[in-house]
Design brief:
Layout (H helix, E strand, L loop, with lengths): L7 E3 L8 H10 L4 E3 L3 E2 H6 L2 H5 L8 E6 L3 H13 L4 E6 L4 H5 L10 H14 L4 E6 L8 H13 L4 E5 L10 H4 L7 H10 L4 E5 L5 H8 L4 E4 L1 H5 L7 H5 L9 H17 L4 H5 L12 H11 L8 H19 L1
Parallel strand pairs: 1-2, 1-9, 2-4, 3-4, 4-5, 5-6, 6-7, 7-8, 8-9
Helix pairs in contact: 1-13, 4-6, 6-7, 15-16
């Protein structure tokens, strides 16, 4: 297993943090820990295991996030994670969606800390990987700090030493997943207090972190930060991580250079019959605030999905950025 740090993590994002997105993030940062989309134990055990487990070797360090509540099934999938070479296996105890609740996993599991602890214990017995848990600070009316501490202590007894804490509670009935990311207030002080009270545990803060500056502020008080939508909607944000948080220079110095570095990967995947738009969709937020960004996005959106679309679509989109910048410099 490769050494890695959880000082900066790119979150598991359903339908977004696929292997193509993670490859782009890895080009942007050599050190960020990347997480897969959540994969259910049922999908891995009864579905197309290879499709769900496949990743690029360049993605390391990369963690597999699992959704499930059956300790034996989770243990089986943790063993698969080690077999496939992942660096960590993470249990989702934070997703509030109805579909996840109906499967009896995600945030609703916070109401059953002994089962989470049993699951962690079974996973640790099945593999040599770090087993981590991602959760909320509470659910519904179970939101006292004392209750959160009891949850953490119980799960820690099951063998978990790393907790990724979304600093909002989840409201399991009446709010959509999107509303659960916006309506319950962020309470960073709760996560900070958790680190103070449990200094032996690794506490990673998640929720509402949108910049490198935010990350540095939080890192004074916790062990790591996890960014989700901010890193996806602006992938170049990840390009500042290595220098600011890991004190190492990044050889890729601009969003344009990041696209250029991504081109050989896209060409290789095109040769394997991967449609261009599955990869190019992850580029759409790259040039936020840069002249020509709207033209770049529009060109890719209008052309990458067409039959036979190839790398020229990306090159033409990049040219629109260059032309707009030249026009601005001439004014």
């Amino acid at each position: 297993m490769k050494d890695f740090s959880r000082r900066f993590c790119c979150a598991p994002l359903m339908d977004w943090s696929d292997r193509h997105c993670r490859y782009l993030w890895r080009l942007a940062s050599r050190h960020a820990l990347l997480y897969t989309e959540m994969v259910t134990t049922g999908a891995l055990i009864h579905g197309d295991t290879q499709r769900f487990m496949q990743y690029n070797e360049e993605e390391h360090p990369v963690a597999l996030q699992l959704g499930g509540s059956n300790p034996a099934d989770l243990a089986h999938c943790a063993k698969l994670a080690q077999k496939w070479g992942y660096d960590e296996v993470n249990l989702n105890v934070g997703c509030p969606s109805d579909r996840v609740q109906n499967g009896m996993f995600g945030a609703c599991l916070m109401a059953n800390a002994p089962l989470v602890a049993e699951s962690v214990s079974a996973m640790k017995a099945a593999c040599d990987l770090p087993v981590t848990v991602k959760h909320r600070i509470g659910i519904d009316d179970l939101e006292s700090y004392e209750w959160l501490c009891e949850f953490v202590e119980t799960v820690h007894q099951g063998g978990c030493d790393t907790f990724i804490v979304h600093a909002r509670k989840a409201i399991l009935s009446g709010l959509s997943p999107k509303q659960n990311r916006e309506i319950p207030p962020l309470k960073y002080d709760v996560v900070y207090q958790l680190k103070r009270d449990y200094p032996q545990l690794e506490i990673i803060l998640n929720g509402g972190v949108t910049s490198i500056e935010d990350s540095l502020t939080h890192l004074d008080l916790v062990d790591g930060v996890m960014l989700g939508r901010a890193a996806y909607h602006n992938p170049w944000l990840v390009g500042g991580v290595d220098e600011a948080l890991f004190y190492t220079p990044n050889p890729i110095a601009s969003a344009e250079q990041l696209v250029t570095a991504y081109l050989p990967y896209m060409e290789q995947q095109l040769s394997l019959d991967v449609p261009l738009n599955r990869m190019s969709k992850h580029l759409l937020g790259l040039f936020q605030g840069i002249p020509g960004a709207r033209l770049f996005r529009r060109h890719i959106s209008e052309n990458a999905h067409l039959p036979g679309a190839g790398i020229e679509v990306i090159l033409d989109a990049l040219q629109k950025i260059a032309v707009q910048q030249a026009i601005n410099e001439a004014l």
